[in-house]
Amino acid sequence: MTHVIGVDAGGTSTRAIAVDASGAVLGTGRAGGANPNSHPPSEAAARIASAITGALGGLDPAETAACVVGMAGVSKLSDPAVAEIFEAAWKDTGISPVRTVPDPEVAYASATSAPDGSVLVAGTGSIAGRIRGRRMVSTVGGYGWLLGDEGSAYWLGREAVRSTLDVLGRGGEPGPLARAVLTEALGPSAVDPAGTSLWRALITSANAEAPIRLARFAPFVSEAYREGDPAADEIATRAAALLVTNVMAARDPGEDTPVVLVGGVLSPEGPVGAKVRAGLDGIEVLTSTDGVLGAAWLAAVDAYGEGAPRPVPPWKNTKNEP
Q1: Which residues contact 50 (CB under 8 A, 6 or more apart)?
Q2: What is the DSSP string of 129-147?
Q3: Whether 309 contacts 120, CB under 8 Å
Q4: Beta-carbon neighbour count of residue 180 at 10 Å?
Q5: What is the spatial distance between Cα 273 and Cα 266, in angstroms, rounded to a whole number?
Q6: Which residues of 229-254 are buried (b: 16+ CB within 10 A; e: fewer)?
Q7: Is residue 89 a contact partner of residue 313, using CB atoms and an 8 Å limit?
Q8: Pick the residue with more confidence: 146 or 257?
Q9: Which of these, 122, 139, 284, 306, is most buried using a 10 Å CB contact count?
Q10: What is this structure's pTM?
């Protein structure tokens, strides 16, 4: 009996599942982060291979009808030297062929069977993509912290710090957002022992770390928003507007396909996620569930055709529907 393998390889963790033709999950595997942009390619490839091996368990690798790997940083494989490293890893698992795709594609497939649509990702970074035939054919944004990532956790954290600096620079009274930022950056007392002003101390603190570390301030925007802080509301509103603009730019005028939202920033419980959904009123908006399920279903479609049932793993208590 044949089976397929789906893999979701991100920057912090890698998960794999083996699924049979009925959609039943036969095995699972897990490993560390495998983004070849943030990990050495040999390490990333080995971790994906380890997760695949774990999912196979006692299954015969030769009976793998298809394998789809959704990978953050998949563009790195355009380098022939890097591609060779990954090809060697696939060979070691005994699986062939392996199809690698951008992680937004598996996130999109986790939420809908529709072949065409759009995907909007907002986690630490952000990107919008046009999906055609379940492939991401074009993108808007996704340029990284220096050149873009509008509405992302990085962007929200940066704006939270900038808003706090504006309050301090004007000599205003810090609100909930500014107080949270100062406590996180400078400690509970938010007092510099050397006598430097809070304004200067916050600038120094923010610039002393890698820029992407600004993302750690993003949750304070949601918290302060719930406390009624106007500064947090203004930041969340701007973030949502930027994200909606990007995803709409990835769509044709009047397009009626679904939009799939991916990432913690777009959680329906958070202010940015709620505002984005309001901004997309009239469009079918779905939330990505689990990228590894999307990868496995794409592999099942590759192997068994459009009628392949969507996988429902043991950790889900949902109905298995095609």
Answers
A1: 14, 29, 31
A2: EEEETTEEEEEEE---TTT
A3: no
A4: 22
A5: 4
A6: bebbbebbebbbebbbebbbebbeee
A7: no
A8: 257
A9: 122
A10: 0.85
